[in-house]
Write a structure and sequence with these properties.
By secondary structure, this protein is an alpha/beta fold. It folds into 2 domains: 140 residues, 3-Layer(aba) Sandwich (Rossmann fold), CATH 3.40.50; 109 residues, Rossmann fold. The protein has 8 helices and 12 strands. Strand 7, helix 6 and strand 8 form a beta-alpha-beta unit. Helix 1 runs parallel beside helix 2 and helix 7 runs parallel beside helix 8.
Length: 276
C-alpha cells in the first residue's frame, strides 16, 4: 500500500508536471504528499571566486529563493484543489547537497517522485535522481518533462532481466500493478542471463499469487541496443508506465547511473518506476 510519497518541486514555473503527477498519485491511493523545494546556493565557477560582486551573488540567491517559494505555493494550491493531504518543505542546499539530502528524506516515504533532467541544464535533476535511487532505499518514479496526464495504468510495461534491481522494482511496484488494467513482462532476448531464469514464467506465477495477471513478451535486440529496443516496444505497445531496475556503478564512494538506465531516462516517453 502507498500511504505517503515525497516529490521534488520544480523551479517555480506556472506548470510543474512532476508535482501534478505526484498529487494525482496521492489522490488515487489516498496518500499524503510532501513537496520539497530547494533554495539552491549560488553557483560560482572556481575561476571566478572573489571576482563576482557580493550583491550579484545575493541577487542570485534571492531569485533561487523566490522560485522555490513559488513552487511551494503552486504545489499547495494544486493539492488543495485536488483534495489531497499535503505539506511542503523549503530547504537550503547546494546542488550536490540537495541530492544527498533528498535521498535521506525519501527513506521515510513509500515512494519518491522526481522530474526528468532537462537535456540542456539538468544537472540538479540528474543528481536528485541518483540521490533518490541509490541513497533512499525506496522506489523512485521519474516523470518525463512532456507528461500531461495524471497517473495512468492502462498499459504497464515491466522490464525483466532476472537481476536483483529488476526483482526489487517489481516488488516495489506491486501496489501500482494491482491497479493496472494490462501488464506486460518484457524480456529482451539475447541479454546476458543474470539469474539462471529470465523467461518471465516464474515471475508471472509470483505476481499471479498477488492477484496480478500479466502477459510475457519477448523482444529481440537485433541491430539496436537494449534501451532502443525497450523504448521502441513501449511506443508500439502504447505503454503509459514502465517498471524497471535502476542500474549504477560505483564511483569511489558514490553511485552513478549505468548506461542503459541513463539512456532510458533521457528519452523516456512515460513515467518510469525504478528501484536499485
Amino acid at each position: 500500500m502507498i500511504k505517503d510519497l515525497v516529490v521534488n518541486l520544480g523551479g517555480g514555473g506556472a506548470k510543474d508536471v512532476t508535482a501534478d503527477y505526484a498529487i494525482s498519485m496521492g489522490k488515487v491511493h489516498g496518500a499524503h504528499v510532501v513537496g520539497v523545494a530547494f533554495v539552491y546556493e549560488p553557483v560560482i565557477p572556481g575561476s571566478l571566486l572573489g571576482g563576482i560582486p557580493t550583491d550579484l551573488i545575493e541577487v542570485q540567491r534571492e531569485e533561487n529563493a523566490k522560485a522555490a517559494k513559488t513552487a511551494v505555493a503552486n504545489f499547495e494550491a494544486a493539492a488543495k484543489a485536488a483534495g489531497v493531504s499535503a505539506e511542503s518543505r523549503l530547504l537550503d542546499a547546494s546542488i550536490a547537497g540537495a541530492s544527498d539530502l533528498f535521498g535521506r528524506i525519501a527513506r521515510r516515504f513509500d515512494i519518491a517522485v522526481v522530474g526528468q533532467a532537462p537535456r540542456d541544464q539538468g544537472v540538479s535533476e540528474e543528481l536528485l535522481i541518483e540521490g533518490a535511487l541509490f541513497g533512499a532505499g525506496r522506489p523512485v518514479i521519474v516523470v518525463p518533462q512532456i507528461q500531461s496526464e495524471p497517473l495512468k495504468l492502462d498499459n504497464v510495461m515491466v522490464c525483466w532481466d532476472g537481476s536483483r534491481p529488476a526483482a526489487r522494482a517489481i516488488g516495489d511496484a506491486i501496489p501500482l500493478l494491482a491497479h493496472a488494467k494490462a501488464i506486460e513482462i518484457v524480456v529482451v532476448t539475447g541479454e546476458r542471463d543474470k539469474s539462471g531464469e529470465i523467461t518471465g514464467a516464474n515471475m508471472k506465477r509470483h505476481l499471479a499469487r498477488h492477484g496480478i495477471n500479466v502477459e510475457i513478451k519477448r523482444i529481440a535486440v537485433g541491430s539496436a541496443d537494449v534501451q532502443t529496443a525497450i523504448l521502441a516496444h513501449a511506443a508500439d505497445a502504447a505503454a503509459d508506465f514502465i517498471v524497471m531496475g535502476g542500474y549504477g556503478h560505483s564511483r569511489l564512494r558514490e553511485f552513478i547511473l549505468g548506461g542503459v538506465t541513463r539512456s532510458i531516462l533521457k528519452s523516456m516517453p512515460v513515467p518510469v518506476l525504478m528501484s536499485h
